[in-house]
Amino acid sequence: MIISPYAQRTPEWHKERLGLPTASCFEKIITTTGQISKQREKYLYELTGETLSGRPTERFVTNKMKAATEREADARWLYEIRKRVDVQEVGLCYKDEQKKFGYSPDGLIGEKGRLEIKDAEPHIQAMRLDKGWSVADHFQQIQGGLYVSDGEWCDLMSYCEGMEPIFILFERDEKFIEKLRVALDDFCMELVMLVKKLKAIG
């Protein structure tokens, strides 16, 4: 794993992510069952557009999303207290020197542990505490993060200030990761070729 020196959400971090498939969007490439996602083509053109224009795809950021980002530090601190571990904040991680795709974890725990934090509104946290938390939407991100960062396990945390947090432990799913590896290689190759093709037109 190669770790970028730039902190998350800095201008340099955003620049590094331009045109780069990242774990938070791996669900747009592959489904939880290993099938090709219906969002794949759109995501391919989004990243192609970012590469050619040098501008990120417009994504609307609400005030709630900004507040959730600000609360991430509180969640990370609570995790350290509850689990009695140190969590290392890092920027963008690459699997190797090819830097074809990346992963920005919410924290590294030792050599092989990873942390992903999801901020929840009070009513959502209450429902998760009462009925359980369906985490299928985060499966590709977590397994993708473990693949990119060579991690062995990841704690997924649902956090709401003032309420009991939820922790769900994920271990590597090697069968899925192999399907992801193939899907990522194909996607990245197609991305390079599409960028090359459109550059030639210009």
TrEMBL record:
GO molecular function: exonuclease activity
InterPro entries: NF-kappa-B_Signaling_Reg, PDDEXK-like_dom_sf, Restrct_endonuc-II-like, YqaJ_viral_recombinase
Protein name: Putative exonuclease
Species of provenance: viral metagenome
Every YqaJ viral recombinase domain range: 12-150
Signal peptide positions on this chain: none
Alphabetical UniProt keywords: Exonuclease, Hydrolase, Nuclease
